[in-house]
Amino acid sequence: MLDFSRIGIGSVQFGLDYGISNKNGKPSQKEIALILDSASDLGINLIDTANSYGNSEIIIGRFNNARFDCVTKFLPELSNGSIEYQLNQSLNNLKSKSLYGLLAHRPYDLVQNPLQWDKLNELKKKGKVKKIGFSFSSPEEFYEISAKSFLPDIVQLPYNYFDNRFENIIKDLKSSGCEIHSRSTFMQGLFFMNVEDLPTFFDEVKPAIRLLQETYKGTVASVLLKYVLNNKNIDKIVVGVQSKFELEQMVHSIDISSKLNRLEFTVDNSILQPSLWPNN
């Protein structure tokens, strides 16, 4: 029996119409309640969110009932208020006195404003948050942060079948005692798309996506999740789901899912970063 506590629920889709393959918009609040009930029953105990995910935090606050550790993120202070102001907003939304994790959504902002790291440590000392760190999108962000000698308690970074850019960084962070959370397991649902519907921008990976879908009919999500679970240096794998059925089907198929070997080619960086995709 797998330990489902290594899985975390991503919540951006609770508050925004999110994902390249998402044709149905946000799940209903009734469905979100069912997702969280099912996740709790499975032993999943973490939710990842952010103040910038629409009303995601508010919805989580409505249905959490102290069952989940919450990790949220803050944006640069200049246009969004101080870190403490943003954290207090999140605490209010989530109906909580403290959070498990608080991450910088834009790590470069702390490189330019290093005093913000001191502020994060103050919030940790006050007991408002247990762990502080960064949400990375590229290895370059990590190297900039490392040059400042900031030592995070927790980081979140992309890791999936196409994207192994952080492989060695994960090992280094883990050896320093940092908690590692991965995201983008399904690349916003790119792995589930009909390749004929994808623009030419994705031509490089269309054959690999088609092969995945043809080889692992009905279990693509489980196979991709198992790929990340097999990296024992990753503590939590954050995944987004649209329904209780989707969550349960995915986790209950992991044991019988095949093991993916490493991809035999390097995917272009423009595909690995959804912010660079057409219309994103």
Descriptors for this entry?
TIM Barrel, 280 residues, single chain, alpha/beta
- Percentage of residues assigned to helices: 25-40%
The proportion of residues in beta strands is 5-15%
Overall shape: globular
Count up the helices. Answer: 13
How would you characterize the overall build of this protein?
The structure is a single chain. This protein is an alpha/beta fold and 280 residues long. It has one domain: Alpha-Beta Barrel (TIM Barrel), CATH 3.20.20.100. Helices cover 39% and strands 14% of the residues. The protein is built from 13 helices and eight strands. An eight-stranded parallel barrel has the order 1-2-3-4-5-6-7-8, surrounded by four helices.
